Amino acid sequence: MPLFVDPMLIFNSNKPEYKALHEEIIKFFHFLYKKAEKGLTKKEIGAWFNFKEVPNNWLGYSLEGNKGLALGQKYAEFLYNNIAFAINTNGLTQSGHIEKIMLLYEGSGKDKISDLTVNLIKGYLCEYTEKFAMEYIDSKYFKRLPVEKAYFNYETESFVSKEYTLPYIYNEKGKIEYVLLTPYDILREDDPAINRKDFIDSYDSVRMTIENDALRAYVNNYLSKVVREYEEKQKKNKKKVSERSIAKIEKQAFMELVKEYPELYDYYIKCKEKNADCVSHISKVKYLGYSFYNYRGKCRFRVHPKSVTKMKSRIRELTNRSNGWGNEYRALKLTQFIRGWVNYFGMADMKKLLKETDEWLRHKIRAIYWKQWKKVRTKYRELKKLGVDKEKAWICANMRNGNWYCSGYFVLQTAFNNKKLRELGYPTFTEFYLKTCEN
User: Fold this and answer.
1) What gap in Å lies between CA 236 and CA 232, rounded to an integer?
2) Maximum separation of any 2 CA atoms in the chain, in Å
């Protein structure tokens, strides 16, 4: 599961060392701005603006091993050309934010902003890993190793290497490679709090927070104008007005306005700073599929809602009534999936979730059989085999409602009770949980 460093989590933290880290990051960006103002050669851009990927923390995307794509010269030139935009807050935000640069970058930039941040905090990560290694790791697994570009020296205006005591592995070439640990509270699986897609999707919230009355009125009037033109065009062509189309048109118009009024980017960042508690509140964090909550002063685990959604999507695939699977094979695939899922999320408090999921799963299984039986006489015969009396079986077999409705009927619920489903090979989440994971 790819994880990424989010600079907003560093900014938002109350830890003094993180506040100092954020200040150092912004200080380096101001240094870059001063250099860019004078104009730089391609070689100088490569020296100050080009950063290699730091594979030693094993973060981000990679097809194999820990090696991904470096930021590269193209990104260095992008950073060089837009550094003034990145540090200019227009007097609206509490601080500068290096991820602001990614609001201009089309495409997924979470790996790039994470790689950039890791380069700028490498010294801190080395010290953090060194401290952890000395305290918790057997001495045979770490040694004194040199780290390139560990920190930036402003007197010599260059990155400096330094030796640290770090854990290590042997890479695919048989050479020693140091390993860096990253604190979990600056990591996230999703996009960073400040990102281009969220900015575009948040256009409505951004325009409501504009404090400049004249700018707010202009933005609102412009968006109203383009929507009105669309509605008149649809009316003229005798076509329906689509809410989805309106939202798309408003987003496009908003992005046109941003080119004219770049301070709109800073209003967006200001919104993020105001709602900073939501960025890293314990109940909002998703880490390896888990979320967290406080119970009697202790941190407890839950299954994150996104993980629940993924699990239900997989169940839908496995119980798809049109996939051509036989019942025995379907039961086997469900057993394999449920056993693996419960073992992975075994640390979470999830009895209620599993009970509700089991009820939903049983409903889906009943719907599969009901669809398979098709004809009235087949339904009547199969229901009698399951122990339903003749009268109830006949009434149920002649129902003309949809498969999902019929499978929720009390006669089918009684016929396909838990004992019968177990005999047919169908597992339950709760059963696996109580057997292996209850704590």
Assistant:
1) 6
2) 93
H or E element in which residue 159 lies:
strand 158-170
| Tokens linked to 413 | 């619920």
Can you read off the two tokens belonging to residue 281? 């509140």
Residues 223 and 350: their CA atoms lie apart, in Å, by 46
Examine the pLDDT at 62 and tell me if it is beyond 60. no
Its pTM stands at 0.62
Residues counted in the chain: 439
Tokens of 287: 């880490």
Q: Is the dihedral of CA 273, 276, 278, 280 positive or negative?
A: positive
What's the distance, CA 405 to chain centroid? 35
Phi, psi of 411 (to 5 degrees): -65, -45
Can you tell me the distance from the alpha carbon of 73 to that of 52, in angstroms, rounded to the nearest whole number? Answer: 10
Q: Could you tell me the two tokens for 389? A: 């009396």
- Stated as kind and residue range, the H or E segment containing 28 is helix 16-38
Q: Which residues pair with 146 in a beta bridge?
A: 163
Q: Could you tell me the pLDDT band of residue 255, with boundaries at 50, 70 and 90? A: very high
For residue range 6-49, list pLDDT tens digits in order.
Answer: 999 999 888 999 999 999 999 999 999 999 998 999 888 988 99
80-111: pLDDT as tens digits: 999 999 999 999 999 999 989 889 877 656 78
Amino acid 352: pLDDT: 87
β-pairing, 176-178 with 158-170?
antiparallel
20-31: pLDDT as tens digits:
999 999 999 999
What is the distance between the alpha carbons of residues 53 and 70, in angstroms, rounded to a whole number? Answer: 5
What percentage of residues in the chain have a pLDDT greater than 70?
93
Encoding tokens for residue 390? Answer: 């003749």
Structure tokens of 378? 């087949």
Q: Amino acid identity of 119?
A: N
Residue 279 and residue 9 in contact, taking contact as beta carbons nearer than 8 Å: yes
Helix then strand count (H, E) for the chain reads 21, 7
> Distance between CA 182 and CA 125 in Å, rounded?
6
Q: Are 99 and 51 in contact (CB under 8 A)?
A: no
